[in-house]
């Protein structure tokens, strides 16, 4: 079997760790080219010792010196690189065949784009890059014969439920293929049953305690506001080239159905499994083959019932904002994504309350932008504006 070289962007995160677990199960097939981290240098060091990558990337020179000293101590030959230049280098190196894009937020945009431009199989966990740069990102994939395999469990499930021909090309007219609707499922997060008037009292610790999935802090808060489902709504429109009115969000608290595709003859295909990201990761890494992910099979004797409800926008205003942004266009999506990164971080730092996240995100979208996005520089400018507006709104709240 030919050895494939993988770069894992965001190796120390929740998706990164799950990816390395799958890689370790298939050591005869996959080798690690590079591992990257932002703040968790000690965790990265342990990963480097375990996987002996050619490169390790950290965000600044101090971290690089610290990591280098630790690596010297174990006579490691892994080379340490720094910052965005390092990330782009390891995402686009010629030997690399697959890049796991698992940096959180728009910090992942440029390295993920570099992987697309270098014709890699892009394993896309970093939904924020697709939300903030949709068309430009997909053009980079197509023009460079890259492959785009969704890691997000919903989109990976939808991918698996689409016709084989679409899967092979990762593009095509889904309407012609008989697809009438894409149904995104979401658990509703930890506050699904909390009285709405108590939401403003919820703490960061309560917001990140997701009932079914174990994930990084940002996406956990996004799940509590359902902004995550909103970002996934936008992600689905781009990935599957469908209009917003062909995407429906359904609350499914048990998280066993990861999403569904409805066909014109009334059939609905669903992908089911444990809420464990190693399943979509293994699927995307080994597609079109299948291989062990380490995830236990579902036990239908113990699952019990599967429930479905409509989302209530009074409880989840962020979901509504994202659907509106998706209909309004790229600029609104980029603004919203940027504002949300800032408001979620501010909530985690207890500078604003839980319900301020949606309120400020809404103010930023309503402000809008005069910039029309036609290049990555435009994306970065709108992203910067969204951050600035959100920061101003946060400051205003703390000064009253
Ligand atoms: P984590 O917070 O657990 O991990 C994020 C990773 O990105 C870490 O390796 C972190 O480094 C790195 N990172 C953070 N900021 C920067 C930066 N400015 N520059 C470079 N690297 C950075 O997040 P998750 O693994 O949960 O999520 C990663 C992505 O995958 C997100 O886009 C999320 O939406 C998506 N996703 C996650 C799912 C999940 O189950 N976790 C499910 C579906 C999608 P360090 O740890 O060293 O600080
Ligand atoms: Mg998801």
TrEMBL record:
Cofactor(s) the record lists: Mg(2+); Mn(2+); Co(2+)
Matches recorded under InterPro entries: DXP_reductoisomerase, DXP_reductoisomerase_C, DXP_reductoisomerase_N, DXPR_C, DXPR_C_sf, NAD(P)-bd_dom_sf
EC number(s) stated in the UniProt entry for this protein: 1.1.1.267
Pfam families per the UniProt record, alphabetical: DXP_redisom_C, DXP_reductoisom, DXPR_C
List of residues binding 1-deoxy-D-xylulose 5-phosphate: 127, 153-154, 187, 210, 223, 228-229, 232
Binding positions for NADPH per the UniProt entry: 12-15, 126, 128, 216
Reactions it catalyzes: 2-C-methyl-D-erythritol 4-phosphate + NADP(+) = 1-deoxy-D-xylulose 5-phosphate + NADPH + H(+)
UniProt pathway annotation: Isoprenoid biosynthesis; isopentenyl diphosphate biosynthesis via DXP pathway; isopentenyl diphosphate from 1-deoxy-D-xylulose 5-phosphate: step 1/6
GO BP field: isopentenyl diphosphate biosynthetic process, methylerythritol 4-phosphate pathway involved in terpenoid biosynthetic process
GO MF entries: 1-deoxy-D-xylulose-5-phosphate reductoisomerase activity; manganese ion binding; NADPH binding
Domain 1-deoxy-D-xylulose 5-phosphate reductoisomerase N-terminal stretches: 6-134
Ranges for domain 1-deoxy-D-xylulose 5-phosphate reductoisomerase C-terminal: 148-240
Residue sites binding Mn(2+) per the record: 152, 154, 232
Keywords per UniProt: Isoprene biosynthesis, Magnesium, Manganese, Metal-binding, NADP, Oxidoreductase
Biological function: Catalyzes the NADPH-dependent rearrangement and reduction of 1-deoxy-D-xylulose-5-phosphate (DXP) to 2-C-methyl-D-erythritol 4-phosphate (MEP).
Stored NCBIfam families: Dxr, PRK05447.1-1, PRK12464.1
Similarity comment: Belongs to the DXR family.
Stated name of the protein: 1-deoxy-D-xylulose 5-phosphate reductoisomerase
Species classification: Bacteria, Pseudomonadati, Pseudomonadota, Gammaproteobacteria, Alteromonadales
Gene that encodes the chain: ispC
């Amino acid at each position: 079997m030919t050895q494939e070289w993988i770069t894992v962007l965001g190796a120390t995160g929740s998706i990164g760790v799950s990816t390395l677990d799958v890689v370790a199960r298939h050591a005869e097939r996959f080798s690690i080219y590079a591992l990257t981290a932002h703040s968790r240098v000690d965790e990265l060091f342990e990963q480097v010792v375990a996987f002996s990558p050619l490169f390790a990337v950290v965000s600044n020179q101090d971290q690089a010196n610290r990591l280098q000293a630790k690596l010297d101590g174990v006579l490691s030959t892994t080379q340490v690189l720094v910052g965005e230049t390092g990330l782009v280098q390891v995402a686009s190196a010629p030997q690399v065949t697959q890049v796991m894009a698992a940096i959180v937020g728009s910090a992942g945009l440029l390295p993920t784009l570099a992987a697309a431009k270098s014709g890699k199989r892009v394993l896309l966990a970093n939904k924020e890059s697709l939300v903030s740069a949709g068309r430009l990102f997909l053009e980079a994939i197509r023009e460079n014969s890259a492959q785009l395999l969704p890691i997000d469990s919903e989109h990976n499930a939808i991918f698996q439920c689409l016709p084989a021909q679409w899967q092979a090309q990762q593009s095509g007219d889904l309407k012609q293929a008989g697809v009438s609707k894409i149904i995104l499922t979401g658990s509703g997060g930890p506050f699904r049953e909390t009285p709405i008037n108590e939401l403003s009292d919820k703490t960061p610790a309560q917001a990140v305690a997701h009932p079914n999935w174990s994930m990084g802090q940002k996406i956990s808060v996004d799940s509590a506001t359902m902004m995550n489902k909103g970002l996934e709504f936008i992600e689905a429109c781009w990935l599957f080239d469908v209009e917003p009115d062909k995407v429906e969000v359904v609350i499914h608290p048990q998280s066993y159905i990861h999403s569904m595709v409805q066909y014109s003859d009334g059939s609905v295909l669903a992908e089911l499994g444990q809420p464990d990201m190693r399943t979509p990761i293994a699927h995307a890494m080994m597609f079109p083959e299948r291989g062990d992910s380490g995830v236990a099979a579902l036990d239908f004797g113990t699952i019990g019932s599967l429930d479905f409800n409509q989302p209530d926008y009074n409880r989840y205003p962020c979901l509504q904002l994202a659907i509106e942004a998706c209909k309004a266009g790229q600029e609104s999506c980029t603004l919203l994504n940027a504002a949300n990164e800032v408001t979620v971080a501010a909530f985690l730092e207890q500078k604003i309350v839980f319900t301020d996240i949606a309120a400020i995100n809404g103010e930023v979208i309503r402000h809008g932008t005069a910039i029309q996005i036609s290049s990555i520089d435009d994306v970065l400018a709108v992203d910067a504006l969204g951050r600035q507006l959100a920061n101003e709104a946060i400051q205003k709240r703390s000064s009253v």
